[in-house]
Amino acid sequence: MTTNTVVSVSGLEKTYGKANERQYTALKGLNFTVDSGEFVGIMGASGSGKTTLLNMLSTLDTPTKGDVVVNGHDVTKMRGNQLADFRAQEVGFIFQDFNLLESLTAEENIGLPLALKGTPSKVMDQAIHEVAETLSIADLLQKYPAELSGGQKQRVAAARAIVHHPAILMGDEPTGALDSTSARELLDLLTTINEQQKMSVLLVTHDPFSASFCQRILFIKDGQIGSELRRGDQDRSTFYQGILNELGTFNE
Ligand SMILES: Nc1ncnc2c1ncn2[C@@H]1O[C@H](COP(=O)(O)OP(=O)(O)OP(=O)(O)O)[C@@H](O)[C@H]1O
């Protein structure tokens, strides 16, 4: 793995079910890398293994076989506290359903990853306010999730995901519950964060519009990387058409 690689996946397999039960192999030997600072999308038909892959990358589940190296850490070899530390420090997540704690304000939600690390409150305040500016939510910090729109909630969740400067931001259909305007705003913000902070982003999505914001897209088919598209110097709408054409070759 070179110093420019933030994620390296090799020979990744995942079989669900115990040996004496009915088994299903969702991932059949995946290989790919993500460069530091890249914005990569993972696409595939429903049931192709996108969430399974993200669960392996984020250590929420363990692979049956293969290696996953994130920012120099072989996550398949980590256990207990090491895993908890890895998740808390190296990865930021955004999910379709926001996963904000309802009893905490936006500010308290955003501060969670720093509080877990025991960050001094002054440093924490500054980091929260900086990220809140980036995500245009500075005026929402004292509100509770129930007082926020879906788009605002997702921007708070994105702030929480990056406040501790993780090595990579991972999203599982983060625009799935948003209206089209909020989805676009979030994707523009993710692009800004990727470009300005050189934050590596891995976005799992079945939505070609979301995927068109990525620099490179990996398509999972039959449990493997079936194909790959690079945006290069295409404008976003040309890339979007390319994605639609590629998806058209899949039997969904
Ligand atoms: N815990 C589990 N036990 C058994 N099979 C599972 C389990 N989780 C997922 N699968 C199977 O593995 C395959 C991949 O599922 P996964 O959720 O990763 O797909 P996906 O690409 O994220 O789908 P979608 O786009 O519909 O969310 C599916 O066939 C699914 O039924």
TrEMBL record:
ABC transporter domain boundaries: 7-247
Matches recorded under Pfam families: ABC_tran (PF00005)
Keywords for this protein: ATP-binding, Nucleotide-binding, Transport
Domain of life: Bacteria
InterPro entries: AAA+_ATPase, ABC_transporter-like_ATP-bd, MacB-like_ATP-bd, P-loop_NTPase
One Gene Ontology molecular-function label: ATP binding
CDD domains xref list: ABC_MJ0796_LolCDE_FtsE (cd03255)
Gene3D superfamilies according to UniProt: P-loop containing nucleotide triphosphate hydrolases (3.40.50.300)
Family: Belongs to the ABC transporter superfamily.
UniProt protein name: ABC transporter ATP-binding protein
Organism annotation: Levilactobacillus lanxiensis
